[in-house]
């Protein structure tokens, strides 16, 4: 138990969840059955991984939950590929590893609001980080979350994934197409989370943030949802950033709320089980 008490997820249990989502305007995931290395793309050919990394998107590897996949390893001959941006998510099975240029074209199409031929729109997906080689907390806490989701939701819409950023907030998952990251999801709230994602809604107190926003706007959106009691559509009307302060206005129907978030220095923390050095991450707080 002493070792578990020193894991990054336990040591940082007091760190605010809001504002911790990894920033990404788009996401690309390629099916790879494992084993996964410490880096998200370490399992791929270096030249191919470099091509994927050139895309303007967060790149990861995925595989189906263990109960749904066979015993094969490595890159399948026809891997599933998931691309998400602009409120859309599309899936295809490609002949071999998809070329970076092809994925760039898919991203461009989705950005225009179009789903390309040969790609299928998905109403929703949940991707759970189980990336043990990156951080032990991801697997130790992520796998029970995935198992609970398998029991509570449509397992055809569930995937294991490599690193989503912020393993100290494990268990973490990413909902698509909303691009909302969640953390510290307790198993007794899995049915609530699954139902919300399927309905196109969010669970504000479990949100790390929407990846299309920077940390200050992530914090502001979550605070606005909690104050307005909104789980559905909430629009960002405007925002301004001046120094350490970001002021934004949010609208839900005929209601509007303006919030100011301030960036402040955080205290040094052990941000990963794999690192002994401490890092000081900024914190973001709603201020009067």
Helix content: 10-25%
CATH class of the largest domain: Alpha Beta
Order of helices and strands: HHEHEEEHEEHEEEHEHEEEEEE
Mean pLDDT: 94
CATH architecture of the largest domain: 3-Layer(aba) Sandwich
Number of helices: 7
CATH topology of the largest domain: Glutaredoxin
Total beta strand runs: 16
User: Looking across the biggest beta sheet, what order are the strands in?
Assistant: 5-4-3-1-2-7-6-8-9-10
Intertermini distance: 42 Å
Structural class: alpha+beta
What value does the Rg take, in angstroms? 19 Å
* Shape annotation: globular
Summarize the model shown.
Helix content is 24%, strand content 28%. With 288 residues, it is α+β, with helices and mostly antiparallel strands.
Provide the descriptors you would attach to this structure in a database record.
288 residues; 2 domains; four-stranded antiparallel sheet; 7 helices; globular; single chain; alpha+beta; ten-stranded mixed sheet; Glutaredoxin
Notes on the protein architecture:
The chain is α+β, with helices and mostly antiparallel strands and 288 residues long. It has two domains: 2-205, Glutaredoxin, CATH 3.40.30.10; 213-287, no CATH class. It has seven helices and 16 strands. The protein has helices at residues 2-5, 8-11, 46-53, 100-111, 136-152, 190-198, 215-228; strands at residues 26-31, 58-63, 80-85, 88-93, 120-121, 125-129, 158-161, 173-176, 180-182, 207-210, 235-242, 245-252, 255-264, 268-269, 279-280, 283-287. The strands form three sheets. Strands 5-4-3-1-2-7-6-8-9-10 form a ten-stranded mixed β-sheet. Strands 11-12-13-16 form a four-stranded antiparallel β-sheet, with helices on one face. A two-stranded antiparallel sheet has the order 14-15. It is globular, with a radius of gyration of 19 Å.
